[in-house]
Amino acid sequence: MPSLTKLFSPSSIAVVGVSAETHKLGSVIMQNILSAGFAGPVYPVNPKYEVAMGVKCYPKVSKIRGDIDLVVIAVPAEFVPDVMRDCAKKRVEYVVIVSAGFRELGLKGLKLELEVRHIAEKFGIRVLGPNCLGLSVSATKLDATFAAMQPLGGNIAFLSQSGAFNSAILDMAAARNVGFSHFVSMGNKVDLNELDFVAEWLKDDNVKVIGMYLEQFSDGKDLLDLIKAHPYKPVVILHPGETVEAQKAMNLHTGALAGSSAIVRAALAQAGVIQVDSLEKLFHSMWLLSLGRDVHQGRVAIITNAGGPGVMLTDMIARHGLSLAELTVETLDNLKRVLPPSITPHNPVDLVGDALAERYDNALKVVAQDQNVDAILVVLTPQLVTQIEETARVVAQHFRNSKKLIIPLFIGGVFVEAAITKFNAEEIPSFIFPEQAVNALAAVARFHLPKQTKKTINLHSRTFTSIAKHTHAVARFTRTTPVALPQALTFELAKEVELDLPKQTIVDSFDSALSFVSETHFPVVLKALAEDITHKTDVKALYTDVRSVAELHEAFFALEGQLQRVSKKSKPAVLIQEQIRAQEEVLIGVNRSGDSRVYEQDGLGFGHALVFGKGGIYTEVWGDVAMGLVPMTKEQLLEMIHRTKLSKVLHGARGKKPLAVDKIVDTLLKIQKLVQMYPQISSLDINPAMVTSSRCVAVDLKIFVQE
Amino acid sequence: MPSLTKLFSPSSIAVVGVSAETHKLGSVIMQNILSAGFAGPVYPVNPKYEVAMGVKCYPKVSKIRGDIDLVVIAVPAEFVPDVMRDCAKKRVEYVVIVSAGFRELGLKGLKLELEVRHIAEKFGIRVLGPNCLGLSVSATKLDATFAAMQPLGGNIAFLSQSGAFNSAILDMAAARNVGFSHFVSMGNKVDLNELDFVAEWLKDDNVKVIGMYLEQFSDGKDLLDLIKAHPYKPVVILHPGETVEAQKAMNLHTGALAGSSAIVRAALAQAGVIQVDSLEKLFHSMWLLSLGRDVHQGRVAIITNAGGPGVMLTDMIARHGLSLAELTVETLDNLKRVLPPSITPHNPVDLVGDALAERYDNALKVVAQDQNVDAILVVLTPQLVTQIEETARVVAQHFRNSKKLIIPLFIGGVFVEAAITKFNAEEIPSFIFPEQAVNALAAVARFHLPKQTKKTINLHSRTFTSIAKHTHAVARFTRTTPVALPQALTFELAKEVELDLPKQTIVDSFDSALSFVSETHFPVVLKALAEDITHKTDVKALYTDVRSVAELHEAFFALEGQLQRVSKKSKPAVLIQEQIRAQEEVLIGVNRSGDSRVYEQDGLGFGHALVFGKGGIYTEVWGDVAMGLVPMTKEQLLEMIHRTKLSKVLHGARGKKPLAVDKIVDTLLKIQKLVQMYPQISSLDINPAMVTSSRCVAVDLKIFVQE
């Protein structure tokens, strides 16, 4: 991967499309570059002018003497390919195309975009955009954007697939005095994408937090491998399109995506990425994380001048998965010493309505020392005697002197405005709405600084060494659309990874059925195998608890009749199976996001995700499923099982015997191996697997393959 | 109920505790009353002064000549009773006690508070407070508070149990130019409570919305009866203490409340109250509701100058239970006509980045006419050419001309500030954060203006006419703590309301067991009845699927052995029961909030709540239960069942036969009747009830009674 040096830190820049009209994109960009204080030469390019913006204007990039590291292109879309070819002559390495009029306008624009990509690949030009706002880098005073304001310097690296979000975040940040190290608008991602930028930023010590608005992941697996290799740097992602409605709004194919948004959620969580679902959570959590303060276990102390907000915040804290800090006995004693005698200290620490700045100071001195406290919410409501600005001064001082995350929450409007302005000036994140403060804190708490580099499996490395036996057979069924493997091959694959299957055979006569039951014992299960019977409980194509030869006789011939009626076949195919008396039916499955080359260097997507949850008819009813990305360790699999509510039952709810959770983990490991051996598997469904106190038996297994 | 006329519209006021020190509470209140422009005379009272604030000061209220309608008391707590007695002499009807130092300070304060209540009751004085901020009424220019600012006039009636929330909401409202018709701080509610105020406000046409912060409900049932009788007026309630942690913070008994917060939620929803969980949702939803615009089915159109925010808002809208409006063909055609040809109109309507105010105007003209649209979010992100203030002018104009709820969402900070200020000045609710806008809109959408007064059952009227047979027997077991009714009496009650019970009997010998199975058929179930075996699956005290005399023999004597070992009784008590083969096990239960006089005029609390959900060991695991307040109609019961996920299974999931939902409703109606006949029932548990395609059988029934 290139280091983007000349993009972030060019020696010279050319802007193509500068004009005499100052409000045109090219002119605005040129002005922005100049006014941000860029150190090197900046060349305007436009064949129409001899002079532009008071300096010599060049007809084309190749006519400029001296090297050009970066070219910003702001001409109508149809002229972009020619400009690119001219850049190639000049051996330009980086180009930013801000022009719109490509893929976003349909087929004609898409063709133009593919031409741009072709030229870029042919001449080795790296391209940001098209259809983007440009980029800013504070360290090199580079502001190659047409944004209406320049971002302040800071340590947040932000990138967005929507230029509008860049503008909105920029405006929000300006109002709160929040700065950025890098500020990138990616547009249509014809070449440079989030992988290129994140790779750089993860290594850059000046970047404290990475924030992204991403509509599509260019390669989920590669992105997560990168992030997992740098566990010390927080990454926040806003990824819209979770709901079917939003997918429609993005004009995306619905079916495929609905599944994959669950995979995205599981994958991001597994890699330690903080996923947020709103612009304010994105902005506020980047802001808090830019402080670089670890909130460890998310134990929150509340200091407040009123009981009501304390109670309400306590509710919010619990609902958001944070916890109310248990103050130490020492802290409680010290609080008793410094607070009026009528106050019995506990968390929330209620300083009551007549609290002046000094009482806040005293309480903060004590609570900030408590080792059980990770973050402090300092709540002020404007009451008659409240010293709002003086209290802000006190809180700011403690903020500076402490390593804990101290968050001022000054609830109000007009009265608290001066205090909020003061906090902004001192670069202290502050809030006036309780919910925003707790939301942001909860997002931050999801990022625990790891005490040592986590042992993670690289997503590209397979976790097995055996050689697949049925590669050719599986390949024979693989198409561009999903195909169900036949039952016999499915059994072969299951045997290859030693899945626990019930004793079973496929028979076509009553005599064969009879000879099966002489090997095994009653009870048995009989299932019809016709392909057009998909859900076996929909028509009577399943007989369970068959206990005697007489019952077997009845069931077999009833099934035969059903099969002939439904599938018009003369010979019945009936699966006869030992009956497993399950204490619990579970679902074990796999879905793949991306293509079948997912374990190779050029494969795209997030790969295979394991699914575990309540099985049988209840899978859809409860939606009690957990997901995790392949490959997972035993510990991760156990943790995944534990995330389901079903886990309580498996571990023995209300005096029931615990079930064979270890055997479930075994099954998941075997399935994980199977999909890595046969990456063509696009989905796999064991529903149900019967779990007893000693076994996890795959009684119904379906496998689909796809390219 | 009194009309509060002299409280809201007094002819004259006395303020007790006015002093020479202008920052003291009494002086601040006096100043506030005067500066708000109160029309009648205001008398300062303080025995220490001859003159206060430039006018004659009275030593006590009774020394004032002329009638006094309202007395505000701002003296130290210990002097309050004397002032009250003096007020009684003067036949004062209303007193506002702002003084703190009562119940909130422990036992001594509580005694003082009870004394105040005693005097109030004795002399018929109505009291607001103590420990409150006072009240403001805009219609009569009354501002009897010690708040640091006066609320603006408006049509929101707000009351709070936390004075700090009054202050914070007041400050927020001032910043957004939001006004109030009434603004009340209730403090410790020694006498006047939410019932008194809500009763008035529901009748007052100047009040468009009622908002409340309530920590405890004075009488839930009465409040809901009031609200249900006025279905045209929206009521928003923030009720903290949903979580165990917050209950601890309120110093309340945990166990009792955890259950009742679920009852509160169900009860408020049933009465059409909008329950919110944060201060910002409370404030923003009151603000939107004060416009009095109906959002009908919550179908939202989005008009935006950027795709990203449109996608993100679509996600939010779907997540919040709103829906994206399906624009009519006519609307789409008209949009095509007025928008640039490159835009294919759909909802979200993306005006793209170069949209000027005129394009917003054109789009709004069209979309505001669409009958499929209930609310319009007008989204602006500050891009290079965006005409922010001009667009604000356009949106404001459409807001005024339309009856639809048009909400400006101008995402940003510095650039959008002037536009937001403009919206505030024109009293148009606007937002800069997408999540806040959608949260508020979702809260508003939960209040659908009913097309005609809903047919509701008054909570006080019982829905049965029969006479209870076992009143004396039940009364015999009723104590101040919960007591389990004996099995035999439980059966009697079940028979009285004709619950569907399995054939069953209690036997103490194998011979009796044998004679039971000759009456019924196998299979049967055997259960131990010893009281110390609470959860029957914990020890082997339950035998199911007993299919033969041999198995019966084995099970009976095994149980006898178990029982003798566990309960040390010589004679076993064994319940023998026909076995019901359930297609589904459900939970049917009742919990009572409040006391056993709940159906009488002076009974307190919300009453009995019916509970329905997944039964057996899964009740706790899935938490899939729905609740509703007694009495409910058949339709309401069906709707309650439908709220559970289990409902899908009951109605026939994945080709399974539908189960007897009508019989579940019957059972719920019978239980509803039972708890009204025996209001001493504090909780009742049928877990499980076995549901087949034709029956709902209560196989395990427990009843607890309490005063």
Provide a compact summary of the structure.
The structure is a homodimer of 707-residue chains. Helix content of chain A is 37%, strand content 20%.
Question: Care to describe what's here?
Answer:
The structure is a homodimer. By secondary structure, the first copy, chain A, is α/β, with parallel strands linked by helices. Chain A folds into 4 domains: about 5-205, 3-Layer(aba) Sandwich (Rossmann fold); about 295-445, 3-Layer(aba) Sandwich (Rossmann fold); about 505-580, ATP-grasp fold, A domain (Dna Ligase, domain 1); about 585-705, D-amino Acid Aminotransferase, Chain A, domain 1 (2-Layer Sandwich). In chain A, the strands form 6 sheets. Chain A has a 7-stranded mixed sheet, sandwiched between helices. In chain A, strands 20, 25, 26, 27, 28, 29 and 30 form a 7-stranded antiparallel sheet that branches. Chain A has a 5-stranded parallel sheet with strand order 2-1-5-6-7, with helices on both faces. In chain A, helix 11 (about 305-320) packs parallel to helix 16. The two termini of chain A are about 25 Å apart. In chain A, about 50% of the residues are buried. The model of chain A is unreliable at about 250-260 and about 450-455 (pLDDT under 50). Chains A and B meet through helix 5, helix 8, helix 10, helix 11 and strand 16 of A and helix 5, helix 8, helix 10, helix 11 and strand 16 of B.
